[in-house]
Design a protein that fits this description.
- The chain is an alpha/beta fold and 152 residues long.
- It has a single domain, classed as Ribonuclease H-like superfamily/Ribonuclease H (Nucleotidyltransferase, domain 5).
- Helix content is 47%, strand content 15%.
- The strands form 2 sheets. Strands 3-2-1-6-7 form a 5-stranded mixed β-sheet. Strands 4-5 form a two-stranded antiparallel sheet.
- The longest helix has 22 residues.
- The two termini are 20 Å apart.
Length: 152
């Protein structure tokens, strides 16, 4: 499972036996906040072996209110994953993006997801779907880097 955190982020489920597809969901929202109960139900339904969450920090120049909102969303996601009993790993944006040869250009992430997951391209059709694309790529990174290490 890969997570691009934040209210506009997404969660993706990648299963190595179906390497050309991925299941992606925008975070369920209630009153402008991530709905932990719905997210928990989805995680339990998909039963991932591991969760890879992008480790993010406050950005310079970001307002106090938006920083608080983002931090609350990040905390909700981490808490729900832990409550679901899924092993949790964090990865920096630099690390997973370097793995794929990506820069900070979100459009490049979306274009790569379109190529890597041809059977589920509908998840990434629009430019605004970059969060979905990044969640999918984080999930694939986790399958390649984290699960491979665990199997060795």
């Amino acid at each position: 499972m890969g997570v691009d955190p934040g209210n506009s982020g997404a969660v993706a489920f990648f299963f190595p036996s179906h390497h050309d597809r991925v299941s992606v969901d925008d975070f369920p929202l209630a009153h402008g906040q991530i709905c932990g109960g719905q997210l928990y139900d989805r995680i339990r339904q998909m039963a991932p072996d591991v969760a890879i969450v992008e480790l993010v920090h406050a950005m310079p120049g970001q307002g106090v209110s938006s920083t608080f909102t983002f931090g609350r969303a990040f905390g909700t996601v981490v808490g729900v994953i832990q409550a679901a009993g899924v092993p949790l790993h964090f990865v920096s944006p630099r690390k997973w993006k370097n793995h794929f040869g990506l820069s900070s250009d979100k459009e490049a992430s979306r274009e790569l997801a379109l190529r890597l997951f041809p059977k589920t391209q509908e998840h990434f059709r629009l430019k605004k779907h970059h969060g979905r694309a990044e969640a999918a790529l984080i999930a694939l990174y986790g399958a390649r880097a984290i699960l491979t290490q665990r199997a060795a």
